Amino acid sequence: MHRLAIIGLSLVCVVGIGCSDRPRMGKVSGTVTLDGKAIETGTVTFEMTGQRPGTARIENGKIVEAMTYDPGDGIPVGEHRLAVSATKTAAAATSANPGDYKATGANYMGGASLVPKKYLDPTTSGLTATIQSGENVLKLELLSK
User: Fold this and answer.
1) Which residues, 6+ apart, have CB-to-CB distance to 24 below 8 Å?
2) Buried b (16+ CB within 10 A) or exposed e, 35-58
3) How does pLDDT run across 105-140, given as a tens digit for each residue?
4) Does residue 40 lie in a domain region?
């Protein structure tokens, strides 16, 4: 009888009812602007003490594909500090003198940040969000000054 109970409990865990070590999640969408203009592309990072950080992409000013563990799974329920990063497209690596980056002023590793430095770090951004089970719609309004 004891063996049957262990098998039954294992089956419940395999099916995924009540044995997940993952927190409750909420879906996240919304918008991100800088001085009232949509940020074309970038990333929003969600940070909460004791939880794995979550991320969402910014596409045409919209928050899409929020995830923490698996694509589209959402963000853990709770109080989060946020960071926003967005960069210009890196410059082309073409030059009459290969290795002479000063000739073009190019940054081949990545483009310049489109948002003020304070927004790149969740501890300095001043951005927070309370994520709840279900749908969450955020409106992040960043300012350049």
Assistant:
1) 76, 77, 133
2) eeeebeebebbbbbeebeebebeb
3) 444 456 789 999 999 999 999 999 999 999 999 999
4) yes
Count of the separate structural domains present in the chain:
1
| Residue pLDDT, tens place only, 74-85 | 999 999 999 999
Structural Rg of the chain based on CA atoms: 21
Residue 46 lies in a domain: yes
* Domain span holding position 114: 18-92+99-137
Q: Kindly indicate the confidence band of residue 33, based on its pLDDT and cuts at 50, 70 and 90.
A: very high
Residue type, 71: P
User: Would the pTM of this model clear 0.70, i.e. be above it?
Assistant: yes
Domain membership of residue 9 (yes or no) is no
